Queue: 2 jobs
Job 1
Amino acid sequence: MANPPIGTIQKRDNYLCQYCGKDGLESLDNWHDSTVDHFRPRKYGGTDDSENLVTSCGHCNSIKGDRLFGSIEECKVYILKRRAELQITFEAVKKAVRG
Ligand SMILES: [Zn+2]
């Protein structure tokens, strides 16, 4: 099946990251960071059909990578847990560098 036109998936999802809720229309930076994720990764046979595509911010898309999940909800739990862990690492690095 042909790829949906650019922006179609983000419009359908109201430019909200389906994993963390980041609003892609809140700012230029958020808009620039808005990506489309293959929920079922291509490496596992995921297609470009719109049912397999979800709006994702770049951060969530990067954390998810090419992992395979049974449901959006399961994926969301994984990503939010990783984000919380990364937040702790980030705070430690920031404190070490900036005091
Ligand atoms: Zn996100």
Job 2
Amino acid sequence: MSRRAGRARTQIPSALVFVFCLSAFAFPPPEGPRVDSLGPNLYAYISDNDSSANSTFLIGPKSILVVDTSIDHFEAEKLLREIRKISPLPVGYIVNTHYHPDHQGGNGIIGPDAAVISSPFTRERTIAVAEATSKPGAARPAGHEFMFRPATETFTDKLTIYLGDNPVEIIAAWPAHTLGDVYVYFPKQRAVATGDLYLTNSVPAMDQGSAAHWIQDLDQILALPADHFVPGHFEVGTRQTIQRFRDYMNDLNTQVVAFAKTGATEEEIRQKIQLPQYSDFRQYAKYEATFGDNAAAILKQIRSAK
Ligand SMILES: [Zn+2]
């Protein structure tokens, strides 16, 4: 994927390259994941592996709450090392934003005894994915096993947990990126952990879900008094970057709805959509996360709703 990003990069004047190389020599870029402080006791873990999701963790007086736990044993150990640099307290709560393994394959490492909270759909799908991936032939390399733990608690609208005097609001958002998304709002720290409802400067992957409802979720998230948005992948976003992601979703959805009304085929719609203002967004064909893939996913949602 780094090759892809390299190819997509626009031409950089050689003087700038020189300055960049010089500064890179003086300050070598940090290797590995990054932890950003978002406010009192709240941290974003920004994964250095695009295939493994970010996490958000809140240190309470007696225990820690972690939103999403990375993809597997190996990535979860990396996350746990960063948490342990900040606090020795037990992880009492895990929130899984949705069922995709890159967000919850580390549950068993991060919180073997933690309460695990998700939507009912995420719980069901996790049990199914765990079963499918434990079959002979589906095994992952040693040390990179999925460490699933399905939810011990589910909810259908909103659940508030208090860690000391810190409220944590877990809010239903489905259907959107999947049929079971939730996001997590930390009012005191003015921060939101969005899962894959938001990616910074990137086109999302779309599972079975609803782009139309997803846009409403993004409007609700933007209506919260918040300044920090921890995306499913890539760097922490601002109000401006999440607004732009919302506008991408809305522009794309509007175009696909209009073309669908004319009876256009998927291939025609892939050709016709015009999104030049988002040409700097990352696109990943291997995750079916390109403008065209998103258009095809939305068309499928529209046609299956009829
Ligand atoms: Zn996802």
